[in-house]
């Protein structure tokens, strides 16, 4: 089974669904237009297909290995990484001053979807470099940028995010790694960190760790955390490498999936580090990269789902079993059985919805930086903030769900490791966990994002969806329109209710009890909005005879599939949103016992 | 993490939810009463906890192994199996004439839930013996019973179901293994079979294969399939073992999960076999065991979900992170965060619903055989037939979903294999596939079960649920009652609509397009019915001061959790039920392309 990058779909989603025209119109990306986008996607897709996809299975089987204080990447991965860097793929969105290509973030995300789809374990390495680039670009000193940023952008070195400790996962405020001033402006880091993705490897000469730690006498909790940079090898002023620093991996985890991505336990034993940004502002600085990384994880969900979907579609076209009720053919491809077609159609619809959400979030991020007026930038920042937890959580849930349906379509073969479907199911499972579990995303959404601007961003979203609803009436009549109308109404009701609850200090548990269902409601409905926009754009292209009619008509039908199979969820989301914290509190250990 | 058999819950579900009193009232089980049930469950639970659960992890790590034409069970498994057989666990429901204990099937299922929970890979071995026992008991000759059945009941030998071939999975009608008369009343089997669970192992001296094959000149397709019995070692008339038969495993599959359960590729090379039952009636005979096995697979789903749930609950009580909005405690157990409590409560509610459905199906199976009048037996047979695909499919989906939530509650730890949560997620994934994929179950439900008696069984179910709805009004007011009422109405509407469609030959694809959603609708609502019956029984016990009040109150609250989090799905099911085959047919390869 070969992975084929969905270049046409990605370009369509960027332009017609996510709204790249607005990004181009800012003038901030003079090198960007739709043709450039297609060329970039084509080239990225080709690299993913030809170099990364063929390594996916061996990466799963052999994994990265740890021995004697260092990690060796899975067979072929180090070489593939160097080709990746040489191709300029680590600097797509980085500023030209740092050697980047200054292309829109949204285009980079679309290109990276193909990387994650081809080889999710590989993709994590550059993904975390991009997050490090984002952080250094925003809060690094000029010297830090000169010394480190250019090498990260060129891909000569990689970056790692070093946050979690055994006692500090979702609650980073309780971390205890220390940073002690050395007296020369540098600091000595001491502590143990876990879950450090690509924390060590042999693909590059140096690895830059961005580490959260506490200064002496820092306040307790989240307000006493600072961000530090510590390189695996010291960097001399002329850019050459000096001594090995005092940190090392002490092991890699044996995981359910992404075996080729080394998940390191790291020990810092007086590692020499520089402060990045302001003392005690580490958590805020880290969130600069966390937000980028969360969106990137959402794209991982889309990528792994696309891969699983393609695998299942190919199998369904090949495998013959039973008589088709449609064609009457005996021993028909299972693709011609309605229940299999249903699964594939729903998979495709959810992938398209998640892709739309993630790329629309990328567009919002670009516009939050580059829109023409401060008012517009503020508005787009609100959209980016509101969408980021949805893009992360909803898309990674789709990744797991689609990978599971992919197994199901294979029947017994799906459970056999050699088939490959099982790897996607295993790999996909991490994405709802890392960069903030999906439960944390939901709490972020209802706890912070929803009310950050008095609910303005949510109201703007509802207004935008209503505008699309009106246009939709020209395409469909009856249920496909009614379902979107009902769905928008559900978002409106739930949003108003939640904003009311948030005003009541006694209702904090009710809000938290609603968080998961509210995020899923928004994901379902915004996903439907994306497909509706796709259908409208496809209709315009059909009318203009611009593109493959069967494929464009498919966009119209895909919205209908989504409306029938996903938008109906809104009533179950509303029921769960209103369940209340008190009911859950009554579910004590005694009540839950066997 | 130790598995604790939920003996109290199992006994409660049998008596108060599934309706074992009706089984006892038949008089067909003179040795059965509620105390016997508790004693059996207690003893089974103890065996599962002490002998089987400790082998679960090593079974996953080492697996069963294949070398030189034979399979060796995972470390400790052969010995555990012999203890299991010695304890009488292979003969719980078998007739006393064959050495069994003649207890109700439903009790056996409840006892086996603990086996599957403790060690799903182990449980498959006796589970398939039970299916073989069921088939031989119903269609074997007296000689076959004497020669083979008693050894299967005692557990001295095991049985295997040998159906699938590389070209014949869901469509068994296309199998090509041949059975050629040897002239002495025996047959020579030739062919290759795949996915033969515990097809070979070293735990017993002999293994009895029940094999589907074709006689010479048999009609093509499903009507030309016969059932054969072929033992690994010939059995002499005095019961001693003779020559090794001409079949052998040629490999075992490398699977996503249940590593300790050998999934054999078997080669039959002139294996000497006996015909079982009538020529060309093999598929019908096999369905005798398929139905039993399907229900047993549903129970596997419940078992693995229970195990994953217990693991997650223990972790949530132990792991501390963040401040609780309920208790105000800093660094609180994550159990005290509403979103974690929501997950655990929903897991528990779905497990309880699936347990209720499976055990109610077991009760229906017992009553289909033993109810006092033919009319009652017919009615209960209808219930058993209607419920079997739901029990299989809905419960195994719950198995996967709960195992996935179990990982999620563990956060990053969930993705680490050593934690154990990942094994449940991997193991659980097979259950929606084997013994007929869940898509096949849905097609069986809408294609055969729903209309087998003109819809009478479905109407009887709706009437029974309505009776419970009336009682429910005494327990709750408002939403918990309204949601069940709406849910029953949805079942009624969908059922009438489907029965209408089935009368229209042009609507076959519409029915198949609705199958999955209709099965899920029935599962959701019948599951709610089970919890409602549990709540009513718990209330009666509370009023009678009969039992732990916190635990009994928990049953009332659990129904509310289910009503808020699951019953709301009915509108999404209805939308998908009505999507129509034509919409799916429009989703061509061109439309689905990237």
From TrEMBL, chains A, B:
Domain Acyl-CoA dehydrogenase/oxidase N-terminal intervals: 40-156
Keyword Flavoprotein: yes
MF term (GO), any: oxidoreductase activity, acting on the CH-CH group of donors
Domain of life: Bacteria
Domain (Acyl-CoA oxidase/dehydrogenase middle) ranges: 160-268
Residue span, Acyl-CoA dehydrogenase/oxidase C-terminal domain: 280-445
Protein name listed in UniProt: Acyl-CoA dehydrogenase
Organism field: Brevundimonas intermedia
């Amino acid at each position: 089974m070969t992975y084929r990058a969905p270049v046409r779909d990605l370009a369509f989603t960027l332009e017609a669904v996510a709204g790249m025209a607005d990004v181009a119109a800012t003038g901030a990306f003079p090198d960007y237009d739709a043709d450039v986008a297609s060329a970039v996607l084509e080239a990225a897709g080709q690299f993913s297909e030809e170099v990364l996809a063929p390594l996916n299975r061996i990466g799963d089987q052999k994994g990265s290995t740890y021995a004697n204080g260092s990690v060796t990447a899975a067979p072929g991965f180090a070489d593939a990484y160097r080709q990746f860097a040489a191709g300029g793929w680590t600097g797509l969105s980085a500023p030209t001053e740092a050697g980047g290509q200054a292309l829109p973030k949204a285009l980079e995300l679309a290109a990276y979807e193909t990387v994650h789809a081809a080889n999710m374990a590989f993709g994590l390495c550059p993904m975390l470099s991009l997050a490090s680039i984002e952080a250094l670009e925003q809060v690094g000193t000029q010297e830090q940028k000169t010394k480190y940023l250019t090498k990260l952008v060129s891909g000569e070195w990689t970056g790692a995010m070093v946050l979690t400790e055994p006692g500090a996962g979702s609650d980073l405020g309780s971390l205890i790694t220390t940073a002690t001033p050395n007296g020369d402006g540098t600091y000595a880091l001491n502590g143990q960190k876990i879950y450090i993705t690509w924390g060590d490897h042999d693909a590059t000469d140096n690895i830059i760790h961005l580490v959260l730690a506490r200064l002496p006498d820092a306040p307790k909790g989240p307000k006493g955390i600072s961000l530090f940079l510590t390189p695996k090898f010291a960097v001399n002023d002329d850019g050459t490498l000096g001594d090995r620093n005092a940190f090392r991996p002490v092991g890699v985890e044996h995981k359910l999936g992404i075996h080729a991505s080394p998940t390191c336990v790291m020990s810092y034993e007086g590692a020499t580090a520089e402060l990045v940004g302001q003392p005690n502002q580490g958590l805020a600085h880290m969130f600069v990269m966390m937000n980028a990384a969360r969106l990137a994880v959402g794209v991982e969900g889309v990528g792994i789902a696309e891969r699983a979907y393609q695998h299942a579609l190919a199998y369904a076209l090949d495998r013959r079993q039973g008589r088709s009720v449609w064609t009457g053919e005996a021993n028909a491809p299972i693709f011609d059985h309605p229940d299999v077609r249903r699964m594939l159609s729903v998979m495709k619809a959810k992938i398209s919805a998640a892709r739309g959400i993630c790329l629309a979030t990328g567009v919002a991020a670009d516009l939050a930086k580059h829109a023409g007026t401060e008012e517009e930038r503020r508005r787009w920042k609100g959209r980016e903030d509101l969408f980021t937890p949805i893009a992360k959580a909803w898309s990674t849930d789709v990744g797991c769900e689609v990978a599971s349906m992919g197994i199901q379509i294979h029947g017994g073969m799906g459970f056999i490791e050699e088939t490959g479907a099982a790897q996607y199911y295993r790999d996909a499972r991490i994405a709802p966990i890392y960069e903030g579990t999906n439960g944390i995303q939901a709490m972020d959404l209802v706890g912070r994002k929803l009310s950050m601007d008095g609910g303005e961003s949510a109201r703007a979203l509802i207004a935008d969806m209503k505008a699309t609803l009106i246009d939709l009436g020209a395409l469909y009549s009856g249920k496909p329109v009614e379902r979107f109308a009902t769905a928008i109404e559900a978002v409106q009701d739930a949003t108003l209710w939640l904003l009311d609850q948030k005003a009541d200090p006694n209702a904090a548990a009710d809000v938290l009890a609603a968080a998961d269902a509210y995020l899923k409601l928004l994901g379902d409905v915004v996903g439907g909005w994306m497909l509706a926009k796709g259908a409208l754009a496809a209709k315009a292209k059909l009318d203009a005879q611009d593109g493959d009619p069967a494929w464009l008509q498919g966009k119209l039908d895909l919205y209908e599939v989504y409306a029938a199979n996903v938008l109906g969820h809104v009533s179950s989301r509303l029921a769960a949103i209103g369940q209340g914290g008190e009911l859950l509190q009554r579910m004590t250990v005694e009540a839950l016992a066997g």
